[in-house]
């Protein structure tokens, strides 16, 4: 019976030692390659963002990151070699949380277009306000002032919301307003 107990203790110790070795190797790899993984993730995010910026301004050959002003909801600002601007903005006014868009502003101070970066809106309802059809209604709009889907007050311009997607429409308009505020601080209009 003593032999069986010793065998069980030996087996338990062996399993514990192997588990500790595996945990140590995993932690070492994570620690040693953590910076490489972070750099890879950043490069992937930049490549994705670069592709979206290129969709907004296909004639641009390069985009340079700019020092972003302190505007709540503004993630980053890029300036194209054509003089156009791209603002990556996030609004917390979506139905299911944050809606992140890229807002392109032409060199003449008008909206060029919008690109969806991230969203979690209801398919077929909220996403109806994240379509090229709805976004196209903002093309050519002066990047100044404040837009609203509600009744316009002083200094505001009313825009229509997508029926059934009011929360998401508000998030889109909020993203535009964030971009307009940042654009004004960057020296636009």
UniProtKB/TrEMBL annotation:
Keywords: Electron transport, Flavoprotein, FMN, Phosphoprotein, Transport. GO terms for cellular component: plasma membrane. GO terms for molecular function: electron transfer activity; FMN binding. One of its GO terms (biological process) is electron transport chain. Residues 94-183 form the FMN-binding domain. It comes from the Bacteria. The keyword Ion transport does not apply. This is FMN-binding domain protein. The lineage of its organism: Bacteria, Bacillati, Actinomycetota, Coriobacteriia, Coriobacteriales.
